[in-house]
Design a protein that fits this description.
Elements lengths: L2 E5 L2 E4 L4 E8 L7 E7 L6 E6 L6 E3 L7 E6 L4 E6 L8 E8 L15 E2 L3 E6 L1
Length: 126
């Protein structure tokens, strides 16, 4: 069974940090690009960060550039999102996703990702 499970969300004060984890199972994790997306209440799901299969290429939304870092450990089938200097506007449900298209190159395009986790809530209090 193909599955992505996020963890690490929670409540944090503005300026604080959280590290989200995404555990993958049932897929050849090391060959796929991974992405993080978020969705705030009443808003569309938006791109946050993406990483290529090897980790050599990463992309970030302008709103998180310099504050968030995406990474992966293929040997453990894990992806991570380190979030620093959190702001109230970062409050959302965060989702990890896998892009199983051949090549494993990272993309910011939400439509390219076909496997999604259930999400983890991040709440930043001001």
């Amino acid at each position: 069974q193909v599955r992505l499970v996020e963890s690490g969300g929670g409540l944090v004060q503005a300026g604080g940090s959280l590290r989200l984890s995404c555990a993958a199972s049932g897929l050849t994790f090391s060959t796929y690009a991974m992405g993080w997306f978020r969705q705030a209440p009443g808003q569309e799901r938006e791109f946050v960060a993406a990483i290529s299969w090897s980790g050599s290429n990463t992309y970030y939304a302008d709103s998180v550039k310099g504050r968030f870092t995406i990474s992966r450990v293929n040997a453990k089938n894990m992806a991570f999102l380190q979030m620093d200097s959190l702001k109230s506007e970062d409050t959302a449900v965060y989702y990890c996703a896998a892009d199983r298209r051949p090549g494993g190159g990272a993309t910011t395009n939400l439509q390219a990702y076909d496997i999604w986790g259930q999400g983890t809530q991040v709440t930043v209090s001001s």
